[in-house]
Amino acid sequence: EIREAAGRADGTLRLLLQDSQDAQFEMHTLLLALSSHLTSQYVPTLIASLQWVHMLLAKSASRVMELSQQLWPALFKCLSNQSVEVVRLDIEALARMAPDAAHFVPLCGHLLQLL
After folding, report:
1. Contacts of 65 (CB under 8 A, 6+ apart)
2. Count of structural domains, the chain
3. How crowded is the C-beta side of 67, counted as CA atoms within 13 Å?
4. Residue 55 is part of which domain span?
């Protein structure tokens, strides 16, 4: 029952933010919170966090891209998750963060540092 209520609240907040003016929220604060939640071991938390990342990329890709390096460590960690859905959503988010060479090269550089 609590999980269902939390899921409904999350969906409502996501829709509210999605429908808001772009400048009405602090992207930095949102990305810091998402980065923290992306380190969870709980699959529903990871999926919800990745859905937020996708929504923010759809709403304001340029603002997310300016701060995307805040998310990269957590997103790269999600690649090793056991959940296929988490990995799929994660790969999709990373791909959307590297639409051209200007964004792809730094992303790959960060990834190579992890090896």
Report:
1. 97, 103
2. 1
3. 17
4. 2-114
